[in-house]
Design a protein that fits this description.
single chain, 91 residues, mainly beta, 8-stranded antiparallel beta sheet, 8 strands
């Protein structure tokens, strides 16, 4: 699945892939840029929010278009589905 993403001031474009994995810490989303860079997010237990899964930067989450949220980590930005369905395969 591709999701809109951007680095810095670039416009959002559906250039990132999203992978979902369930582990001991819950659901982890891995967002991969076309250049190989990636970010990992931990989904809240109710599936309605995310936090940074690693690194020192905090995820800033804001409401976006209906059914989606905008997530920023540093200068990287992503538009994600507002709710992650349990057991959904995001790859």
């Amino acid at each position: 699945m591709h999701v809109p993403c951007a680095k810095g001031a670039a416009a959002l474009a559906a250039d990132c892939t999203i992978e979902q994995a369930r582990g001991a810490d819950g659901v982890i989303l891995t967002l991969r840029h076309a250049d190989g860079a990636f970010r990992r997010l931990r989904v809240s237990p109710d599936g309605r929010g995310v936090v940074a899964a690693d690194g020192a930067e905090r995820a800033r989450v804001t409401a976006s278009t209906p059914g989606s949220i905008d997530v920023a980590l540093g200068t990287d930005r992503y538009r994600l589905p507002a709710t992650v369905q349990p057991g959904a395969n995001g790859s």
